[in-house]
């Protein structure tokens, strides 16, 4: 499956898409002067992909908090929380796959950099079982990854730049796809910008920025002039998730707006110049001020309450509209469809070499495409069901039921190879080859397979025997059976 979203249209009116799965692997850089439409582009991308993937927005101006109501993003007002609370919130966000907007507009620049760094580092340092795919959008990225020291404290600049470098350079393996937007490429640290493989370049006027944009787009310097002529909301796109050749994109409409947006001109006052001079120069008439209505300002949400909101949030990709006339399929049909989806995934080449969070995301999308109203599994349940599918297990069959029963205490990541070995022993087939066990285990290392068999043997799950001819057989004590001997290569 290659889910993609439409971000706009080319000059001929044909839709221009971004492949979200490819974007997760290759990252995105957006550049354009103030007023070129960068925030509009990011908003379009966030709105269109909200139902496909977790989203984390680092928002220095508070522009994206309006995503909360229509799309369910949790808004974190960074000014209301201490540093340790921000770290706790980030850890909970990673665990529960909540889409959030970290609003930094209430902080000074130094504090913004420190807060964003602590937040990003916590996402980056999450344990391996929580490496779920997520888009991490950083607006005004030159603030957090400056190319040179500025007016901010050196320690704040250093920690922020380190966090941004981790996001763009090493975040992919942890499921974090950086999407960074900047007004000027020359102000953005080169080692951060260089890690993006997808580019959307908007209007810019300075020669140094046009030259860098042209280099990234693979254009000749004399062609860089067209970047200066781009209209607001128009970009040049290139990259594996967008197009293999530079393509002109007019960004589509959005459903939300920033609270601080100014839509146009306002009429001037109608007073004459004499009246205006009088208003400006005359002494004001001091009058007792009218009583002001007392409006209680809503206190910031306590961190514990916000943690509860994050835990209670259902990932957008798993939200299913309730069917007005009951479930689409009967329980038996749903179970059969789930089994088919798992079997199809298990049959794909190299599926066992992918991380469990990425597989779980793919499984959820396949269920939605099959119109299954909720698969009812968490990550741990999915890992076990997927291991059964990789082994070709059919738990309803008597033979398989006996094997599954003795494998109840086997860890999920070690389950599939044991099931394959036990099934071969039950049927009296030759012992599985090391290469086959390595594929099922998701490794290319023969040493890991040997250590896996040693672990099984220490746990009294198997007994390995090699005869004088060098042929290996594996017995399953709990079943009282053994595989046929296999000639070792």
Automatic annotation (TrEMBL):
Any Pfam family: DUF87
InterPro entries: ATPase_Atu1862_pred, HerA-like, HerA_central, P-loop_NTPase
Keyword check for Transferase: no
Superkingdom of the organism of origin: Bacteria
Protein name: ATP-binding protein
Single GO molecular function: ATP binding
Residues of the Helicase HerA central domain: 12-70
Keywords, comma-separated and alphabetical: ATP-binding, Nucleotide-binding
């Amino acid at each position: 499956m290659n889910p993609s979203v439409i971000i706009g249209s080319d000059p001929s009116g044909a839709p221009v898409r971004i492949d979200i799965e490819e974007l997760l692997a290759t990252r995105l850089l957006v550049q354009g002067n103030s007023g070129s439409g960068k925030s509009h582009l990011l908003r379009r991308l966030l709105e269109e992909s909200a139902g496909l993937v977790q989203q984390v927005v680092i928002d220095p101006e508070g522009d994206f908090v309006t995503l909360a109501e229509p799309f369910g993003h949790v808004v974190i007002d960074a000014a209301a929380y201490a540093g340790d609370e921000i770290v706790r919130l980030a850890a909970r966000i990673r665990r529960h796959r909540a889409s959030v907007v970290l609003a930094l507009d209430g902080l000074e620049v130094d504090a913004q950099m420190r807060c964003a760094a602590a937040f990003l580092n916590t996402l980056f340092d999450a344990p391996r079982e929580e490496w779920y795919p997520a888009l991490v959008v950083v607006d005004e990225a030159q603030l957090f990854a400056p190319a040179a020291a500025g007016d901010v404290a050196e320690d704040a600049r250093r920690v922020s730049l380190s966090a941004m470098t981790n996001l763009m350079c090493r975040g992919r393996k942890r499921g974090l796809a950086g999407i960074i937007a900047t007004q000027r490429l020359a102000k953005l640290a080169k080692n951060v910008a260089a890690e993006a493989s997808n580019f959307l370049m908007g209007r810019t006027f300075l020669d140094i920025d046009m030259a860098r944009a042209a280099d990234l787009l693979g254009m000749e310097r004399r062609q860089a002039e067209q970047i200066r002529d781009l209209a607001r909301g128009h970009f040049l796109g290139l990259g594996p998730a967008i197009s293999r050749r530079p393509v002109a994109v007019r960004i589509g409409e959005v459903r939300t707006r920033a609270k601080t947006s100014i839509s146009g001109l306002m009429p001037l006052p109608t007073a004459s110049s004499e009246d205006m001079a009088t208003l400006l120069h005359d002494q004001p008439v001091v009058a007792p001020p009218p009583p002001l209505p007392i409006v209680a300002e809503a206190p910031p949400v306590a961190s514990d309450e916000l943690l509860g909101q994050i835990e209670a949030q259902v990932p957008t990709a798993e939200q299913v509209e309730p069917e007005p006339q009951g479930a689409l399929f009967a329980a038996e049909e749903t179970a059969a469809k789930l089994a088919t989806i798992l079997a199809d995934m298990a049959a794909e080449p190299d599926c066992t070499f992918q991380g469990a969070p990425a597989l779980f995301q793919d499984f959820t999308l396949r269920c939605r495409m099959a119109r299954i109203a909720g698969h009812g599994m968490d990550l741990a349940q999915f890992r076990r069901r997927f291991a059964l599918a990789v082994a070709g297990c059919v738990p309803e069959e008597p033979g398989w039921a006996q094997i599954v029963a003795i494998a109840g205490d086997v860890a999920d990541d070690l389950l599939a190879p044991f099931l394959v070995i036990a099934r071969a022993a039950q049927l009296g087939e030759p012992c599985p080859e090391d290469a086959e066990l390595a594929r099922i285990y998701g490794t290319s290392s023969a040493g890991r397979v040997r250590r896996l068999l040693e672990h099984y043997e220490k746990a009294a799950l198997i007994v390995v025997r090699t005869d004088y001819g060098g042929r290996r057989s594996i017995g399953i004590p709990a079943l009282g059976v053994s595989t046929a001997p296999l000639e070792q290569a």
